[in-house]
Specification:
Helix content: 25-40%
Number of strands: 9
Order of helices and strands: EEEHEHEHHHEHEHEEHH
Shape: globular
Number of helices: 9
Strand content: 25-35%
């Protein structure tokens, strides 16, 4: 189980040459995510989703609060926790001068996957994502959809227990988006725990078991899509979001 307990992240921003001001990108956020569950982290751009996911992935340290994964936190066992996690953002940068096959090989060696198992695992991943036609192509020459499939394929090499996906379908066409969404659904069936961040609320409504709705760094609703629709007396999450914030949105 993944537990986020009263997590906040404070940053400093420069007002002028002499003055700075602090602000909270995330403020006192708490929720849990279980095996076999897709938890949607949804909200508009600038809501604090990416900062939250980076803290959960151990890339950033919370200013306050605690993140617990399988009863441990990053202070006590950082390496063991990170081996259980795959983290992907929509703008993940990959090595441009190697091929998808070489990238997967490198990731497998990093996670100490035995050589006698690694090739079979890579070939299965390449087949799963329909990458056969470009597996030996230089990454810098790939299309947007091919690049994103390569990015998400590297997350499977070490067979993680937790997926942290930050807007993985952003900017993709309908076919490439379907490949990723089908993957998410399949991994849920494999009892994986998936955090799925998106500002496409219809997408979250279709695949998520639970929703954590964030606005301006704070949680404004937690529940199943149905529970949030009932709470807000609306028929979809988009309308529910606007009902919760009073009908309009202004970036902070």
């Amino acid at each position: 189980m993944l537990e986020v307990k009263n997590v906040s992240k404070q940053f400093q921003k420069k007002i002028n040459q002499k003055e700075t001001a602090s602000f909270l990108a995330d403020n006192n956020i708490s929720f849990t995510a279980k095996e076999g569950e897709i938890v949607g982290i949804i909200g508009p751009n600038g809501a604090g989703k990416t900062t939250l996911l980076r803290m959960i992935a151990g890339i950033m340290t919370p200013t306050e609060g605690e993140i617990i994964i399988d009863g441990e936190n990053y202070k006590t066992n950082e390496i063991a926790i990170k081996k259980k996690i795959a983290f992907l953002t929509g703008n993940t940068k990959l090595y441009k001068d190697i091929s998808p096959y070489e990238l997967l090989k490198m990731c497998g060696e990093y996670y100490d996957i035995p050589k006698n198992k690694l090739d079979d695992r890579i070939n299965a991943i390449i087949k799963r994502f329909g990458m056969e036609s470009f597996k030996h192509q230089r990454i810098e020459t790939l299309s947007t959809g091919q690049y994103q499939r390569t990015g998400i394929s590297r997350c499977l090499v070490h067979n993680p227990k937790y997926y942290i996906l930050d807007e993985p379908t952003s900017g993709l066409d309908v076919i490439s988006s379907k490949v990723i969404l089908d993957f998410v659904k399949e991994e849920k069936k494999n009892n994986k725990c998936i955090l799925y961040s998106t500002h496409y609320m219809e997408e979250a409504e279709n695949i998520c078991d639970k929703i954590v709705m964030i606005n301006k760094g704070s949680v404004i609703a937690i529940g199943t899509p149905e529970e949030i629709r009932k709470q807000t007396n609306t028929t979809n999450l988009r309308d529910g979001f606007f009902a919760l914030i009073g009908g309009s949105y202004e970036e902070k």
